[in-house]
Amino acid sequence: MSLSLSEIIVVFRQVVVVLLVTMVMLSRCSSGSKCEFKAIFNFGDSNSDTGGFWAAFPAQSGPFGMTYFKRPAGRATDGRLIVDFLAQALGLPFISPYLQSIGSDFRHGANYATLASTVLLPNTSLFVTGISPFSLAIQLNQMKEFKAKVVEYHSGNKKGSTTTKLPSTDIFGKSLYTFYIGQNDFTSNLKAIGIEGVEQYLPKVVSQIAGTVKELYGLGGRTFFVLNLAPIGCYPAFLVQLPHNTSDLDKFGCLTSYNKAVVDYNNMLKEALSQTRRDLPNASLIYVDTHAVLLELFQHPTAHGLRYGTRACCGYGGGTYNFHQVVYCGNTKVINGTNMTASACEDPNNYVSWDGIHASEAANKLTTLAILNGSLFDPPFPLHKLCDLHHIG
């Protein structure tokens, strides 16, 4: 059947409209991949470890990873961490642990964080003290070695290779450097020497972080996010383990004196970064106040779609905290002849705390959303202008 001229014109116009809409959508899709940051290099402890510790000491089992990965995935939570959400928002894959020899892809950065790491060099090994040997200084040395190997590889492969899992040599100036470390420096000796004892060496902690930023600047780094310390006085584990009187609990059930000490540390860190910023005029050195978000979540969980603040999802004992200092998440212990298993709740998305020590995926996501909207940055930083941020559902 032949078409009249008028009908042909109508069809032509419809085709043009479809093509224009398609071009706009394709344009938006291509622009959505634009980002100034091509990689993330992360330094931290269990709050940002994506599998480094378990690569070095394979043992993780139980309900870890149940929400997102559906299996243990080297993270001390039920799903994704802040660094995972940041990678997704920047359009990057999850960042491979530096210590993971099989399956790692370092083209978009590396994660040096390991569970139980400290800023200051520990006196002895993990197996004696419960503290990781991979302190911040070790993580920095790993970063230096990584860059040296990247440069060496490319200098010996001038024609390039399509199979390498290493980045190009110019990646170091196009990366976001993140720090989420210091909690173990604060808490590991807290029960033994008290707040006053811990506060004696906290200036060394912030000085080490600032010094590490300077060294990374010398390696080419220009953008740094330093996350501050969470309100440890609200975590179920510390509410159970740290000595205190009921008068030390605020109306939200958090430990007032310990949280005040955290605020003092965070202010010290903020000031140290401010001074460091003056020495690095070409750097964006950003203090990220994640403490504010987590404190708000612990104090008002229901206002943010959660149900439980100072109660662990994965733990043993029920009650206010659902945390037992002998039976840790996923473990079974025999106590007084009885098997006790610390199992996970069915709805971790309703909890701020996953296991009494670490935040849940739900809390990590809410914290990351606050980071992405720029409300936690000091000084202000135009992340949304530098990257077309992706959805982190």
UniProtKB/TrEMBL annotation:
The keyword Hydrolase applies. InterPro entries: GDSL, SGNH_hydro_sf, SGNH_plant_lipase-like. The keyword Isomerase does not apply. GO terms for molecular function: hydrolase activity, acting on ester bonds. It comes from the Eukaryota. Gene3D superfamilies: SGNH hydrolase. Keywords: Glycoprotein, Hydrolase, Signal. Pfam families: Lipase_GDSL (PF00657). Belongs to the 'GDSL' lipolytic enzyme family. This is GDSL esterase/lipase At4g01130. It comes from Theobroma cacao (Cacao).
